[in-house]
């Protein structure tokens, strides 16, 4: 005999108890064999299941060997090989791995049911489990390492978006700036710059918004929102020519975006109003409902002899406008004559 530690003695005690219980089962073939097994265990390990002291020391209250086995399997996730195979049949990743292995000829020259096939199949299962364990280990290592700079930047961007919706523009600028600081040239950095541009636009920091939009376009020339926001910032700076061009670019990139199309239309109309030589949109109707012809570059003063023309007197022009409103017929005639005169320098010279 030899001495064992407490856990081993408990295990042997429970095994002998279990074998003694099996003797009472009707399907047991040979009770003599069970008797011999329990006697060998008892003698070799000095275990007596009838001894009161050993019962108090080794027996477990209200728990059998089978109950302990079931609880241990659940706790540890332990499974037999066949139990694992049953679960793997429902695992899509395993089925893909199995298909790949078969396509490479791993099971050639053997058939299901043969010992060699079973041996190879077991090796294949072991390889799959190793890969899965390696993948889990890598995932745990990634979690332990903490979030990447891109993940940190995305978190700041999401917080910035929520803050922007709440109209807390200063805080939004700060959050987008943090995203840019941790990831200035990542795959989504153009979004951080463009979003900060929008927040700065609301704060009337239009020059800063222009810089941010240009930085966004530099990182992703196909990002339509950057052109739209650049156009809006340029509108605020009265740079209508540049605004129109950038809104056009946004529409080219996203033709179905109705907002971009409306921004372009508005910019074109405003540009035409402040720069009559711009031909991007139709002439605006006058108060009489008729389209006024565009003025030549430099205004009327750019034509010979027009500097002192009394027709350019503000009071005279106001009177003419009032007369045209009161008498549309006369207005039509005057407009026709005016258009002919504008197109004929000789007539213009005579009118001076």
UniProtKB/TrEMBL annotation:
Ranges in a coiled coil: 71-98
Highest taxon of source: Eukaryota
GO cellular component, as recorded: membrane; TRC complex
Each TPR repeat, start to end: 153-186, 224-257
Key words, A-Z: Coiled coil, Repeat, TPR repeat
Domain SGTA homodimerisation: residue ranges: 11-70
GO biological process: post-translational protein targeting to endoplasmic reticulum membrane
InterPro entries from the UniProt entry: SGT (IPR047150), SGTA_dimer (IPR032374), TPR-like_helical_dom_sf (IPR011990), TPR_rpt (IPR019734)
GO molecular function per UniProt: molecular adaptor activity
Protein family membership: Belongs to the SGT family.
PANTHER family hit by this protein: LD24721P (PTHR45831:SF2)
Protein name, entry field: SGTA homodimerisation domain-containing protein
